[in-house]
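Q: How would the structure tokens look for this protein?
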Amino acid sequence: MKQKITETNELELKKLLVEKRAEIANFKFGGAGGKVKNVKLSRNLRRQVAQILTKLNS
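A: Here is the predicted structure in token form.
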């Protein structure tokens, strides 16, 4: 994922950011119903969002 972030342009990073934030929202609502099997997914998604934002702001 990290190599992908460094090689993409700003427009693609913004699209990826929207997708990852949507995945986080789905994860949170899925967790409320007890449907989540991969509990590390939330941490990984948040980390990816942070990496994208860092790249966009640098």
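The chain has a mean pLDDT of 84.

The helical segments are 2-7, 10-32, 41-57.

Upvote if useful.
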